[in-house]
Amino acid sequence: MKKGVMRPGHVQLRVLDIEEALAHYRDLLGLIEVERDDQGRAYLKGWTEVDKFSVVLRQADEPGMDFMGFKVLNNTVLEKLESDLTAYGCAVEHIAAGELSGCGRRIRFEAPTGHRFELYAEKEQPGKWGVSNVNPEAWPMDLKGMKATRFDHCLLYGPNVEDTYALFRDVLGFDLAEQVVDPEGNRVAAFLTASMKAHDVAFIDCPEPGKFHHASFYLETWESVLRAADLISMTNTSIDIGPTRHGLTHGQTIYFFDPSGNRNEVFCGGDYHYPDHEPVTWKAEDLGKAIFYHDRVLNERFLSVLT
């Protein structure tokens, strides 16, 4: 049952050098640099996103994800979800409006996988970058690099995937769109959606808590993914795998790394999900084909390189 969570709103990533990271996320991925705050954090967005930002970069001593945020329908929903999280047994932290530039008050909690998530209802909405809301043109003419359209989802590794799924299902109203089960029937991966998308966040079982696998950005076409592959080679960017297709979600994809070692994905296509759809199930023994549909084999980096 939907509880008023609309979409992924932002992700804050730790990077080792802010200027190197900006050259990657702004000039290669093609995100728009919106501003920097007095903490030195950089704010970026995909050109189709109406909210002020969706990616925050923070310089730190080690890479990884600080938190992922979801936007909810309004403040009434935010208050209800805060109450429900507390009743469920989650410790809730309050972050004042303005701590992230242009964002309203946020409530933060930790999932059983060890990842921090937050909910908020308000963020400044300057609209799509370079495109009017009246008689809009097809796209801005000054886009860079891969021309990423939006921040789409994160894939996260940690323990207690089943408990985390229960929290997202029962309190936040997410649906299970796809899953991976082992031969004993245990769920070892859960792909969760608050919308019609194939997933808004996904979790894979891992003994170490709070690990970040990748942040994903949407492109419009397979040709755009192939062009992204060319740009990765042109810039000598560290590549993981692709271009290829997923079995899970059927998206067409390529994976690569930012200068700090955080993995990125750009993809196009993919399945959709309605609340009355049964979850799609993949068997763990077929995980190679589930992740990399063409090669049908997992590379070691994909499983072991986490931040």
TrEMBL record:
**Could you tell me which InterPro entries the record lists for this protein?**
Catechol_2-3_dOase, Glyas_Bleomycin-R_OHBP_Dase, Glyas_Fos-R_dOase_dom, GlyoxalaseI/FosfomycinResist, VOC_core, Xdiol_ring_cleave_dOase_1/2, XylE-like_N
Q: Where do the VOC domain residues begin and end?
A: 7-122, 150-269
Catalytic activity line of the entry: catechol + O2 = (2Z,4E)-2-hydroxy-6-oxohexa-2,4-dienoate + H(+)
Q: Which cofactor does it need?
A: Fe(2+)
Any one Gene Ontology molecular-function term assigned to this protein's record = catechol 2,3-dioxygenase activity
- Its EC number is 1.13.11.2
* SUPFAM superfamilies named among the record's database cross-references: Glyoxalase/Bleomycin resistance protein/Dihydroxybiphenyl dioxygenase
EC class of the enzyme, as a word: oxidoreductase
Q: Which domain of life is it from?
A: Bacteria
Question: Record's PANTHER family?
Answer: GLYOXALASE FAMILY PROTEIN
| Record family assignment | Belongs to the extradiol ring-cleavage dioxygenase family.
Q: How does it assemble?
A: Homotetramer.
Annotated protein name in UniProt: Metapyrocatechase
| Source organism | Amphritea atlantica
